[in-house]
Fold this sequence. Notes:
Oligomer: single chain
Number of helices: 7
Shape: globular
CATH class of the domain at 292-346 and 360-407: Mainly Beta
Structural class: alpha+beta
Radius of gyration: 27 Å
Amino acid sequence: MHCSCVATVLVTQIEANNFFGKCLVGKVQSGSIKVGDAVHALDEDGKKFTTGRVLKLLARQGTQQFTVDTAVAGDIIALAGLPTATVNHTICDPSVEDAIPSIPIDPPTLSMEFSINSSPLAGRVTGSKLTAAQIGDRLIAESENNVSIKVVPKPGGETFDVRGRGDLQLGVLMETMRREGFEFSVSPPQVVLRRCPDTKELLEPIDNVIVDCDEDHSGQVIQGLSGRKAEIMDMSVDDGRCRITLKCPTRGLLGYGSEFVNVTRGTGVLNTSLEAYEPFKGEFDDRLSKPAMISMAAGKVTSYALETLVARGKLFIEPRDETYEGMVVGEVAKDQVMDCNPTKMKQLTNMRASGKEDKVKLPPKTVMSLEESLAYMRDDEQIEVTADHIRLRKQCLDREERKRAKKSTQRKYLVEGEDNSDPFF
Length: 425
């Protein structure tokens, strides 16, 4: 039990201050706290995490923030002086040994690698922030304010392992960085698996999914999620609206957001939360994307080349766009990857051919958002993110090297603690 005269504060939020650095935001649960007090931080288990002194106390009134000398029980304050403490830590007098009960933070279940942009079109946008140091500083600053995101540099210093709670959270981070002028590449998202300590069985994160949609759309929602190995736990209908509760592997929800919006015509609401780790559900059918149309030449796209390619599938480019070898320029209608030359030009001869004066008519190119690109990306691809463009490319740009790598590549999963190079464990 805490003495009523001893100060205790449960940290519920972190904010950055330009003058005082990292500040811990929370409500004073008991006693009073003042500038200069010696305090320590206890983690969720009551173990001492760090010690220090209160350097500044900040309070708010409306939108204005101001410094105070003392805060008492019931005040919501921002405290500076313990830079390593974080959310769910109890800031208290050194005589206190019991932590305040708190709601645990869900662990990261998804991993993506952020790296410098290595494509031939890198650095074309004026004012781009494209160095590894700039990208790393931005990611680390994000992890300091967002406790559910973990960032660790990988060997070499040009790649950063970023882990979060889902593709939407990481997608928001990527879009924010893009609008801030950063230029980088990202790898396909990987779900972080675990091993059962006793049986060594492979476990994967399972999300609790709650869907609210019109009754007319419920059938399509259930069909879509069932194909992603989701299990229906409960279903109810009230006044034309349907609420469906499901359990679905986190892997199955990757990229489902845009599909859900289309199926429900924008009227559905989907909420997810981590429920537990359960035995691995097996492989999914690879149905989210069709084989890619890959460029094998660099240069400007011509309408003459696209006139022959448009009949083979869906195009992601249009005339006068820049392309390079290994860039994904379209989707093939058939189940076979196709290499093409979108920069091919018509031969200039003195012969007059029939139909020479016909005007080329092309359908508009398919423009995918960042979230749609994450769902579409295959294991051997990357997304090139710049302030002006979002391009899909192969990780290995050379055609012959891709063929050799394909023969020797086996599907790998990220399992906690099994990779000695994993910086998180």
